[in-house]
Amino acid sequence: MQVPAQSVCTAIRDDIVSGVFERGSRLTEDQLARRYGVSRVPVREALRTLESEGFVVSRRHAGAQVAEPTDQEAADLLDVRALLEPLGAARAAQRRTDAHLKVLRGLVRLGQERARRGQGEDLKALGGWFHETLAQASGSPALAALLTQLRHKIAWMYSVDRPERPAEVWAEHGAIVDAIARGDAERARALTALHAEHALALHRLKRPERGRVRVSQHAVNTASVRN
């Protein structure tokens, strides 16, 4: 069975984002192949992809290592997301399908319910699914891919505090979906920009420890890989 490079790339990226591989740590093909139980070929392809995404850098005579972004680079990511997410919402108002709208409304209902019950442990995942679906509803695969990559990198660089009033966050999500349902692109854009502005205050730069590699909690899922 051949494991595709995309699956290996996802596993390595997840381990970088979660801190299994610290910033600046070296990544060798042999090391990664053993960790994920694959050959060096998909690892090599995965490292090239991760380099293009900015998670990995390759240095002459030193090989690949986890990137070490500066504080300014991290801040720039939040600015870029604040520009792109409103664009995605505006396009979703024009291009969304009934299926997208059904999922978005369902996520809002779940989020509002969990917020009322104080089940904060579920809200982070629900928020991620909401923004992922919103990006897909834009009808632009390129934009959706950019937003997904931004979310991964921001999760890598930032810790996000829980909002003091999660019900207000999900009320904002609901208002965005209402604007999308009405096809009101400008209102969807404005509400999403305001939502992104509110979220900025919750982000704190991570200050990871150096010089260690934790035990991986991720593995390449070969069960669903087809020959």
Attribute tags:
single chain; two-stranded antiparallel ribbon; 5 strands; elongated; three-stranded antiparallel sheet; 7% strand; 227 residues; 65% helix; mainly alpha
Question: What would your notes on this structure say?
Answer:
With about 230 residues, the chain is mainly alpha-helical. The chain is about 65% helix and about 5% strand. The chain has helices at about 5-15, 30-35, 40-55, 70-95, 100-115, 120-135, 140-155, 165-180, 185-200, and strands at about 25, 55-60, 65, 160, 205. β2 (about 55-60) and β3 (about 65) form a beta hairpin. The termini are close together.
Give the secondary structure arrangement, pairings included.
Blueprint: H1 5-17, E1 26-27, H2 29-36, H3 40-53, E2 56-59, E3 63-66, H4 71-95, H5 98-117, H6 120-136, H7 141-157, E4 158-160, H8 166-182, H9 185-200, E5 203-205
Antiparallel strand pairs: 1-3, 2-3, 4-5
Helix pairs in contact: 1-3, 1-7, 4-7, 4-8, 4-9, 5-6, 5-8, 8-9
